[in-house]
Amino acid sequence: MAALTLYLVRHPRPLIAPGVCYGQLDVAAENPAPIVERLRRELPPGLPLWSSPLQRCRTLAEALQPAPRLDARLMELDFGAWEGRPWDAIARAELDAWAADIDGYAPPGGESPRQLQQRVLAFVDELPAGAHLLVTHAGVIRALLAAAAGETQAAALNRPAPAYGSLTRLDYSSGSR
């Protein structure tokens, strides 16, 4: 088991209309400069930086470090056929099925929160001991916090989403799940 300190940063606010499902939809985000300025003061120097390849994360990561390591396992939940659609245009029966099994339900063509957590934990389990900076998404951060606390994804989704540009520190023992 590797002892890890994970510095988890959520991407800047995406440039997309409110109420649209955008998990793995690759949308741009607000200018990361104010977040970068704050993070440079708050983070230890020289951390290895890993990022979701989606541009809302990648742009922030590249502003922090010229060559971040990109890993698709740090991407947001894949909402499949729901991507890019207004939440109120998604069939009520599909939303009800998700609500009935938050951990296990996958939208058509997408993945379940349990699958998201499994891929994120597989990534973290490969990290060497020490501190790492991850620029990622709310779903990934929630999945890691839930795993560290021994909670289900359903419990994690009941927590408020981390704010855009926020920094969360997590002391984590890889392989302890």
Automatic annotation (TrEMBL):
GO terms for cellular component: cytoplasm. InterPro entries: His_Pase_superF_clade-1 (IPR013078), His_PPase_superfam (IPR029033), PGM_Phosphatase (IPR050275). SMART domains: PGAM. GO terms for molecular function: phosphatase activity. It comes from the Bacteria. Pfam families: His_Phos_1 (PF00300). This is Alpha-ribazole phosphatase. The lineage of its organism: Bacteria, Pseudomonadati, Pseudomonadota, Betaproteobacteria, Rhodocyclales.
